[in-house]
Design a protein that fits this description.
Helices cover 9% and strands 50% of the residues. It is built from 3 helices and 13 strands. Strands 7-8-9-10-11-12-13 form a 7-stranded mixed beta sheet, covered by helices on one side. Strands 1-2-3-4-5-6 form a 6-stranded antiparallel beta sheet, covered by helices on one side. A hairpin with a 7-residue loop joins strand 12 and strand 13. It is globular, with a radius of gyration of 18 Å.
């Protein structure tokens, strides 16, 4: 039995005449002997051209990567990469123990969304992480050899709620472009049980009907 914190991230957007739907899930062990440690991360992407999927599994101090893509040049692949910090797990580490996040120059595996859209090889990159405190804390990630910056704003006290985030990945949407998000509403609820039409009103509560 393993206690984990799971973060699901969804993005849907339109480019020209066709739509994108992307989804990541990150599973972080909150009681690992090594501190909070991510055990698995997955990413799927669907658009009018086809589908792609990849999964990172943490095994024997390496990430085992499986990927499947409709792109002819990518196809199906299996590989291993050095286990290091994931950009996608920073969200979980903020919620679990933000003081455990290393600052300064670090090795960091970029967001799986970014890697998919920019067709970047998934591997550790050099980045600089800083955390500034004020009315809320701001975690900033600046990649040294990629045109990508991420800022996550969160509460400084438990439960370290994430309040907003922004990212900039060049000027081309194919590399992720610019994205900003702000927390509107939140509720504590077993969402997986709210899958009947009688719960549609919760969408208004959460301001999801836009």
């Amino acid at each position: 039995y393993t206690s984990i914190l799971k973060n699901n991230s969804m993005r849907t957007f339109t480019t020209g005449v066709y739509d994108y739907s992307m989804y990541t899930s990150v599973f972080t062990d909150i009681k690992s002997k090594n501190g909070a440690e991510t055990l698995k991360a997955t990413m799927s992407s669907q658009d009018w051209c086809g589908q792609s999927f990849l999964q990172l599994n943490n095994r024997k101090n390496k990430y085992h990567l499986k990927s499947f893509s409709y792109f002819e040049s990518e196809g199906d692949a299996n590989s291993t990469i050095k286990k290091t910090l994931l950009e996608d797990e920073l969200w979980n580490l903020i919620r679990i123990a933000p003081e455990s996040i290393p600052t300064g120059n670090v090795e960091l595996i970029p967001s799986l969304f970014f890697s998919r859209l920019a067709h970047e090889e998934i591997k550790p990159r050099q980045a600089r992480i800083s955390i500034d405190k004020g009315e809320a804390a701001n975690l900033t990630v600046e990649y040294l050899h990629l045109e990508r910056t991420v800022i996550i704003r969160f509460e400084e006290t438990f439960p370290y709620k994430i309040l907003s985030w922004a990212e900039k990945s060049g000027d081309d949407w194919l590399a992720g472009g610019s994205t900003k998000a702000n927390l509107k509403k939140s509720i504590m609820s077993a969402y997986w049980t709210k899958n009947g039409e009688e719960y549609l009103g919760l969408r208004d509560t959460l301001e999801l009907n836009y």
